[in-house]
Design brief:
The protein is built from 6 helices and 11 strands. The chain is of the alpha/beta class and 237 residues long.
Length: 237
C-alpha cells in the first residue's frame, strides 16, 4: 500500500512539473512572459523541489536528498546574486558534512533502539505520556499517544518526518498547546473528530494545513498549535 502511495505521489509531482513547464512555454509563445529568462534564473528551484520531495519519501535516501536541497538553495542564492562563491567548490565539503551528520545520528538511533528503528520494523509506538517531546533528524518517528490528560508539547523534524496519532487521546482540561517545527521535513498530526484545532505560525518557504472538520461547539476540546515550517510542511487532520 505504501509503495502504491509513493508511486502516486511521484506521478502527481512530475505531473505538476510538466504542467508548470507547459503553462510557462504557452505563456512564452503568446508573448506574456520570457520563459527562457525565468528558467535560466530559477532552474535551481527544480533541484530544491526534487530534494524536498525525496525527503518525504521514506524509501529515498535522506542524505543525498539533503545534499540536493542544500546545493539547490546555494545555487539559487548564487543565481540571485545573494552570494558570490563557486558553489561547486563547496559541494564536496557539504557532502562530507551531511554524510558525517547522518552517520552520527544513525549510530545513535541504532544504539538506543529508538522510535526510528521501531518505525522501520513496522511497529507502532504507543505512549501514555501527558506531554510529547519528539525530535528527529535524518530519520522518522511514527507514534501513537493515548494519554487521557494530554497537555501538548514540542515537535521538531529536521530532514525527517514525524507522524503523531492523537485520535485516542483526551485533552487535559479540554485544552493543550503544541509547538511544531518542520525544517526540510514534515509533521503529520491526527486528532479526534470532536477536537477543535487552532493553528498559528509563520511559514518560511513552507506551509501548514489544518484539514480537521470545522467544530463550532464552544465547549469542544481545543488543541492550539504554533507551527514553524521552513522548507517543510505541517498537516493536522
Amino acid at each position: 500500500m505504501e509503495r502504491g502511495g509513493n508511486c502516486m505521489n511521484g506521478r502527481l509531482f512530475w505531473g505538476f512539473i510538466l504542467i508548470l513547464l507547459g503553462v510557462g512555454l504557452l505563456l512564452d509563445q503568446t508573448g506574456y512572459i520570457n520563459f527562457g529568462d525565468i528558467i535560466s534564473l530559477y532552474w535551481p528551484c527544480i533541484l530544491i523541489l526534487i530534494g524536498i520531495f525525496g525527503l518525504f519519501d521514506r524509501k529515498s535516501s535522506k542524505v543525498w536528498n539533503s545534499v540536493l536541497v542544500i546545493f539547490g538553495v546555494l545555487m539559487q542564492m548564487r543565481r540571485l546574486d545573494y552570494i558570490d562563491v563557486d558553489i561547486f567548490r563547496l559541494l564536496f565539503p557539504i557532502i562530507l558534512i551531511v554524510v558525517g551528520i547522518s552517520i552520527i545520528f544513525n549510530y545513535g538511533v541504532k544504539k538506543n533502539n529508538n522510535f526510528a528503528d521501531s518505525e522501520k520494523r513496522g511497529r507502532s509506538n504507543i505512549s501514555m505520556e501527558d506531554t510529547v517531546d519528539l525530535f528527529v533528524i535524518f530519520s522518522a518517528i511514527d507514534t501513537l499517544n493515548q494519554s487521557q490528560t494530554f497537555k501538548g508539547g514540542k515537535i521538531s523534524a529536521i530532514f525527517g518526518g514525524i507522524d503523531l496519532d492523537l485520535r485516542k487521546a483526551k485533552l487535559n482540561n479540554n485544552e493543550a498547546f503544541m509547538d511544531v517545527t518542520a525544517l526540510f521535513g514534515g509533521v503529520d498530526i491526527l486528532v479526534p473528530d470532536d477536537w477543535r484545532v487552532e493553528m498559528m505560525g509563520t511559514p518560511i518557504l513552507g506551509g501548514w494545513d489544518n484539514n480537521t472538520k470545522p467544530n463550532l461547539d464552544p465547549n469542544a476540546p481545543v488543541l492550539k498549535i504554533r507551527g514553524t515550517p521552513i522548507f517543510g510542511g505541517i498537516e493536522v487532520k
